[in-house]
Hints:
With about 260 residues, this protein is mainly beta.
Amino acid sequence: xxxxxxxxxxxxxxxxxxxxxxxxxxxxxxxxxxxxxxxxxxxxxxxxxxxxxxxxxxxxxxxxxxxxxxxxxxxxxxxxxxxxxxxxxxxxxxxxxxxxxxxxxxxxxxxxxxxxxxxxxxxxxxxxxxxxxxxxxxxxxxxxxxxxxxxxxxxxxxxxxxxxxxxxxxxxxxxxxxxxxxxxxxxxxxxxxxxxxxxxxxxxxxxxxxxxxxxxxxxxxxxxxxxxxxxxxxxxxxxxxxxxxxxxxxxxxxxxx
Length: 257
């Protein structure tokens, strides 16, 4: 299959998936958390890699949203493959709502030209969501001052399997990736109803612009322009990023839509 046909297929797949509100925790430093961004990143560096991310949103509010993410992956050159492990923990609000997810990742790559690589990735995850209804306060409790008339669910935790896939194409100066999350649309209801998590599409791309060379003819300084767009049913978000790199030092800024 040619590169052109692959991109045409991806475009059809992206626009054919319907658009909902975000269900997944977000981390600001996307490329410092590549396994969470796209399973095709598993093993994309020739040495082993470990990543650790922490995020706390609105820390001054009781029950602030807190997320942890740990990832480890390794490249197997002879097999043209990469494997990884990703662990996510998220706690939201003072109602004891928690989300834990452990994912195994695999990627395979093809050399499609001189310094041009096409990677395919897949992840399978075991996810658990839990809630403590005794810590929640409902509207009628505030109005009447009595116990709520809303019946709590007997299901305080649920476990399900979740599948994601992704593709990544890159050269030394450009990359384009797309990941497709919740392919099996797992049920996410505490009340035993069928409330499926919709498929989320995540598109990310970037361009490297060399700025100057050293005496050996190598570039000391480069600029990166990056974008990320994702949607899930009626919800969508566009982020724009800009980086400057000098040797091994990298600094940048992102705008989150």
